[in-house]
Amino acid sequence: MSEFDTLLVTGGAGFIGSNFVHVVAERTPARRVVVLDKLTYAGNAENLAGLDVELVRGDIADPEDVGRAFQATGTGGGGGAENIAVIHFAAETHVDRSIESALPFLHTNVVGTQVLLDAARERGVRRFVHISTDEVYGPIPDGVFTPEDDLLNPTNPYSASKAASEHLVHAATITHGIDAVITRCSNNYGPYQFPEKLIPLMIANASEDKPLPVYGDGLCERDWTHVRDHCDAVLAVLERGRAGATYNIPGNTHKTNLEVLHFLLDVLGKPRSLIHHVKDRPGHDRRYAPDGARIQSELGWTPSRTFDDAMEETVRWYQDNTDWLERVRSGEYRNYYERHYGERLKT
After folding, report:
1. Are 278 and 213 in contact (CB under 8 A)?
2. CB 127 within 8 A of CB 242
3. Which residues have a catalytic role annotated?
4. Structural contact between residues 22 and 40, judged by C-beta atoms closer than 8 angstroms
5. How far apart are alpha carbons 52 and 177 in whole angstroms?
6. For labelling, which of 72, 87, 186, 252 has a CA lying 20 to 30 Å from the CA of 229?
7. In the chain, what is the straight-line distance between the N-terminal and C-terminal CA atoms, in Å?
8. Which whole-number Å values give the CA distances from 59 to 40, 113, 267, 313, in the listed order?
9. pLDDT of res. 337
């Protein structure tokens, strides 16, 4: 058990957040976990089934909701949170949605982060871990890997909002002395991922012999990290990270979108003819490549899973959880999918 007896996990019913809560339950079951989640389209209380956590439904940009979440940890508005850490996963994350409308991203990712920082400072929270993304670096040339000290160059509303939130966290450490740490992870995959993202979308479509929409030539390159490796890294940062530091969390697996899809189709036994190239999205960054030297040298962390084994495991999880997938694919998601991809797939 560490000095942090209680964790307030924002976005803990979402993809990465819920996996993190599962990891905490497995590794440090004596810890108390409070989850604050708005339970929008990408947040699902079902992801926390069987876990001993307290779920507070609320908006991180609403000070009253944030206050209720802190009350659930046993603290009010006047301090007493010395053994509490905030792990801030909550965010709007889908680039395509940010291109359609940036305002929800500013509300959640920027305003919400500041509300949390204010609440954490008022209560004397011991540590604040802010989960960001390697997309804040913008496109990276071939052969180059970005260390944490590189300039930020976001190119879409999503990554711009995450860069802005990082600046607010950094400002809080300088101005108010908050013990905050920032992480920047590469593309995640694994259980409970909302099916607008590449991996679950393609698994679901291929399983039903539906077309797999691929932007442009499909040669955009990403670094891929299994979500449980990411969560292990976040725990290491929580426990041992330097106050005020930023850590990349890479998967050390660089593949183009087409390479990923070819692998998935081979695992599923489906033909590559299911791949349909569609019009590229505006400002599509060609390559991300975070450098993992800092987290390896300072915290001794490297990813433990191989891409092939972890991706096959991910495919099996979605095959074994078709009821879960169908439930989250209904309603708002289905409307979004048809609106976003319908016309493109007709061409």
Report:
1. yes
2. no
3. 134-135, 158
4. no
5. 32
6. 72
7. 56
8. 10, 11, 39, 33
9. 44
CA angle 337, 112, 122 (to 5 degrees): 160
- pTM (predicted TM-score): 0.93
Backbone angles phi, psi at 94, to 5 degrees: -90, 120
How many angstroms from the chain centroid is the CA of residue 228? 12
What are the structure tokens assigned to 22, written together?
């599962």
Find the helix packing angle between 307-320 and 257-268, rounded to 10°.
Answer: 60
Residue 87's nearest CA partner among 43, 46, 132, 28 is 132
10-residue mean pLDDT profile of the chain (347 residues): values are 83 97 94 95 90 96 97 77 92 94 97 98 95 98 96 97 98 97 98 92 94 96 98 97 98 97 97 96 95 98 97 96 85 50 49
Q: For residue 196, which amino acid is it? A: E
Q: In angstroms, rounded to a whole number, what is the distance separating the alpha carbons of residues 102 and 96? A: 10
